[in-house]
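Example 3.2
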Amino acid sequence: MTEIQQAPVHALLTDGTTVRIRQASPGDHDAVLQLYEAMSPENLRLRFFSLSPVSAGQAAARATAPGRPEHRTLIAEQDGRLVGLAEYDGPSGSATVDMALAVADDWHHRGVATLLLEHLADAARSAGITAFTADALAENHEVLKVFHDLGLHVTRRFDGPEVRCVVELTEDENYLRAVETRGSLAEVASLRPVLRPGSVAVIGAGRKPGSVGRAVLRNIRSGGFAGRLFAVHPEASTLCEVHAYPSVAALPHVPDLAVVAVPAAAVPGVAEECGTAGVRALLVVSAGLDSHQSAALREACHRHGMRLVGPNCLGLANTEENVRLDATFAARHPGPGTAGVAVQSGGVGIALLDGLARLGIGVSSFVSLGDKYDTSGNDLLQWWESDGRTDLALLHLESFGNPRAFSRTARRVARRMPVLTVDAGRSEAGRRAAASHTAAAATPTMTRQALFTQAGVTATRTIGELLDTAALLHAQPLPTGTRVAVVSNAGGVGVLAADACTEAGLNVPTLGTDLTDELLDLLPQGASATNPVDVTAAAGEEQLRACVARLARHRAVDAVLVALVPTAVAAATGDDLVRALTEPHGPLAGPVLAVLPAQAARVELLKAEGGTTLPAYAVAEDAARALSHAAARAAWLSRPPGTMPELSGVDAQEAGRIVASYLEENPEGGWPDPQTTGALLDCYGIPQLPWAWARDEDEAVTAAERLAGPDGQVVMKAYWPGLLHKSEQHAVHLDLRGPAQVRAAHRDLVTRFGDLLTGVVVQPLADRGTELFAGVVQDDVFGPLVVFGLGGTATELLADHAGRLAPLSDRDVHDLITSPRCAPLLFGYRGAPAADLPALEQLLHRLSRLACDLPQLAEADLNPVLAGPHGVHALDVRIRLVPRHTNDPYLRRLR
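Structure, written as tokens:
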């Protein structure tokens, strides 16, 4: 059992209050004793089963005793006051320990005990503890409910007036869902003073019209803020017709939200002043804070329990009728609506707000996250999920503080509303010399795309593309597939639109004979209806309307894209072809969208009868990409959420021991030898081709005689620490038959590599099959990424890979196997035998489990993995281990 010291963290209670959680020390004795002595007699009896004053003193001494691996006490404090504690204690080396709780009387029912237990369980897991035991009086319903609601597996055994509870600490999906639900409730509660403040103070609104603070104050006032508004200025008495006070302490009412627009050097002092006064949240638009000022700002917000937006941001807005808050320095007030917007860049925020305004899509709330010291995109997703107004979420995130928590939140929210993002930071400049095939394949783009794909987030490449897609998702139903009917009044325009659809991954199918005949009966002489449908320039308004209506209701296609150019024919007859698209078409099987090359704007929403809107694009490629995103969202929604399969034959404890032993001998980490690598894979049941380790020529011959297959052939591979690509070094001998060839091959390796060579690996010649590649790379931010694709010596050259973030669900594994271009080879391409897909799925699941269990696994390369009809085997494996302890990404804590 190993004691791991953890730094203090701040986390949110159910009501949104911030508490600090840290390990107790001997210096906390008096505070712990005071906690017990202040408890009511009834709560003391429930805690100690008696009213003996000796019990409190003994408990305080035990809780604050010097640390040892089998004992840990965590305390929760708020503004310096100890409000709760949780501890475990047990015999040395035991995997099961006793646990106890205590919460101050006036802090009950706020989630203190549950939050402490989550953190105590995390500390216990890190120390190798697998279960808590706790004794309670059967009448102590509150503490029994705490245990029950944790989400962990709990068993109870009643013995007279007492009950003994056993809490198993294994994290599973039920536990993660419970933690997620508690975290969401706490996050939303903590953001109410940010987005629904009853009062706001602007600090730093200068007298000059050009100051940022003055612009924010003016926008709040002119936007019709429904609450109380104050200004803070050391000299002015009135600013923008708002009464000003010399300091925060002088305000007649403590504001919920303070907007800070002072020079960077003054920000920490203002934050401290606000916290002392009881302000609940800060919006810091000031920029240019150095590291010391940043640390002081964070510390003040944590210590006083204030949520923070910014610094270095545009501001925030909430258009709810009972709020009407525009605390930004944007040029125009955002219009009310149902789109939630969160951005890191103020410039991107202005562009999105302007674009949404042009489209007539209003905003429910807008938050410029800036440098994102605290409030994040994850927080905003949870707010929009619960605010009762938002039905479209738009994000621009340049960084992720906790991608795995974001992924869980996003995939839950994305089932209720579209979540769109601009995939910023796609370049590979941050990834330097790759040490393995996996590291070379796992680009930043692949990692981010894996996150978005698994979470159901619609990732676009530009702001324009995001607005194109938002317009379609806001205005039209989702398509049920990728089949598109292209309709045009000019053949060339229709061909270009069909090309755009195909290039965007959509399908432009040939229409059936019956449908084609129906359309031709509706259209002028000379029309073509095979798809694209060319209605010709002679088509009138009624003919176009009838054609589009028939296609939009027909199940042969999933969407209708209509490309129209203005013609003299339509002008002469008074027909308005665009009007034909905006009038009701009856029940639609899918979306209808227009391409109008003569249109000035990139995208517009055309008002249709009945309150609906039709998205119209100036360029067919924009329309096709938007439709492709909509089809991808529909496909994601149609598939049930993935599940994590149970894996038999996994020995995570032995794997941990192997890793610890290796790192003890190699403190800087490195590439373990084949024996260690093979032992690790055996712990997870990952199949390998039989092999033997040989230190000299005689051992190589003996191994070859034992391992040779029916044809008598073996393979010999050189090994030394740091050998990366054996083929490039010509460190592999194939098709060796008999002792003479084995000896000759070994002598060749010794001659060429000399003292570098520490041994060789001997294997039988593998059967035929598809050479694949599977690997893992640990990303410091995103966690483990599993990469899969075509293997062999050309794996990097062909770059036919896909990636998904671990842990992998059954759905993720399916996507991994089917995404690479080589996938048809696994399903029996041109009569070849299909690969053993269940075995391949198992290999990927086990590789994912290995990566999640062992954060010290920096890289893993299984290349090639041979997949054939009778099984899957890794022929060559390399892993790299580094000393690393990672925090549980799902443990509730603030930044």
